[in-house]
């Protein structure tokens, strides 16, 4: 694939595409990542991934990141994984991420690739539906009352 096509695909991807090297420093940050996280590429590239990881999740993230790079694979490869992320303004939101460990032609691990999608609306809608279901179940239980039990 010509590099110009690869560049076009990266720039026009509807999902945020992020690549970080072995040290966790961001090397690739596409326009969708700029829009989603609020960091311009010039600001994000060269920073470590902590700029988008909420503080409570950082330790677990780095443990899993180091483990995956050392193994040369991740158990989450190809699986959409929901998590929380942090925007440039400090606000948090829900994303779905897929991961891959990137290797060169000799099999040497170069870093990790992530594709991210904002799922905040879906997450909030699902949470609202679960809350409503619990309310309806409680109301049904109340209406059935003790007479419904044998």
Main sheet attributes: strand count, strand direction, barrel closure: 5 strands, antiparallel
The proportion of residues forming helix, as a percent range, comes to 40-55%
Indicate the structural class: alpha+beta
Q: Total strand count, please?
A: 5
Number of helices, counting only DSSP H or I runs of 4 residues or more: 5
CATH architecture of the largest domain: 2-Layer Sandwich
Distance between the termini: 70 Å
Molecular shape: elongated
Q: Could you say how many structural domains there are in total?
A: 2
Strand content: 25-35%
CATH class of the largest domain: Alpha Beta
Radius of gyration, CA atoms, in whole angstroms: 20 Å
Low-confidence stretches: none
CATH topology-level name of the largest domain: Beta-Lactamase
At the fourth CATH level, what is the homologous superfamily of the largest domain?
PAS domain
How confident overall, as mean pLDDT? 91
- Biggest sheet strand order reads 2-1-5-4-3
| Strand/helix succession | HEEHHHEEEH
Protein name: PAS domain S-box-containing protein
Domain PAS: 9-72
Organism: Tepidiforma thermophila (strain KCTC 52669 / CGMCC 1.13589 / G233)
Domain PAC: 79-131
């Amino acid at each position: 694939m010509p590099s110009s096509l690869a560049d076009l695909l990266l720039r026009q991807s509807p999902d945020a595409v992020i690549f970080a090297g072995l040290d966790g420093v961001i090397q690739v940050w596409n326009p969708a990542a700029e829009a989603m996280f609020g960091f311009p590429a010039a600001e994000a590239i060269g920073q470590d991934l902590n700029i988008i990881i909420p503080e409570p999740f950082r330790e677990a993230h780095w443990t899993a990141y180091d483990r995956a790079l050392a193994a040369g694979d991740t158990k989450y490869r190809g699986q959409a994984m929901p998590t929380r992320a942090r925007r440039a303004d400090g606000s948090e939101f829900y994303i779905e991420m897929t991961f891959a460990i990137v290797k060169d032609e000799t099999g040497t691990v170069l870093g990790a690739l992530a594709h991210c999608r904002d799922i905040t609306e879906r997450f909030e809608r699902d949470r609202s539906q679960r809350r409503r279901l619990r309310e309806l179940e409680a109301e049904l239980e109340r209406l059935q009352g003790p007479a419904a039990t044998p």
